[in-house]
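**Protein fold record**
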Amino acid sequence: MDDRPAPERRRTLGALLRLPYEALQQEVYGGLAAHGFPEIRPAHSAVFRHIATGGSRLTALAERAGMTKQSMAYLVEALEAAGHLRSAPDPADGRARLVRLTPRGERVLARLIALSAEAEARVAARLGPRRAAQLRRALEHWVTALETEQGRG
């Protein structure tokens, strides 16, 4: 009996995208501990992926990540306690708080980007450079189309 979920048995597009993404995520976030950041978990990617260069409001982070404000607050508080973020009153609106990366948080982000590039190079080695380039072009085209449809492009 095949006990895999139906989408994985049928190899839906979602499953074909999800499984490689999960492998990449495990590879990248697993590599952080060896670089001095054992406290960073895949869940923290919701913050690192969506925080703006000059900082972001908690509500904006939650909205971009597609999660509740309470869930984002939990992640931000943990990262702030670990020294990766700091929050301060938003100069544009003193009632709101702006969350920014600290120098340690900037180092995490830089390491995540470097580990992602290393993982992508390993994917290219597995698929071959031509197929990897085709995959990247197809995904870039898809993302651009989605951003345009959503008014972000």
Remarks:
- The first helix runs from residue 6 to 10.
